[in-house]
Amino acid sequence: MRGYHYLMRIGHLINTLARYASVLAPLFKEKGVQGFIRFVRSTYSGPWFEDSADIEQRLSKPLRLSFI
User: Phi-psi category of 9—alpha, beta or left, where left has phi over 0 and alpha has psi -120 to 50?
Assistant: First the structure.
């Protein structure tokens, strides 16, 4: 069951990348294959916020949803 879960997560990652392919194409051209994979991996596995001040600043603004 664990293997199935990992496959579903990889599938979700590939689906998300395909949805935003037009936005990611210039980044891919700029960084190359290995740089792009490194960028995706660090984005997917790394922390998104630097410190608590960044989180507090984001929470102080009103919530705004946008659809691409």
Answer: alpha
Per-residue model confidence as pLDDT tens digits over 19-42: 888 888 888 889 988 988 888 888
The CA distance from 61 to 50, in Å, is 18
pTM of the full structure: 0.46
Is-contact 39 31, C-beta < 8 A? yes
- Token reading at 55: 């989180």
46 assigned to some structural domain: yes
User: Domains in the chain: how many in total?
Assistant: 1
- Residue 66 in domain: no
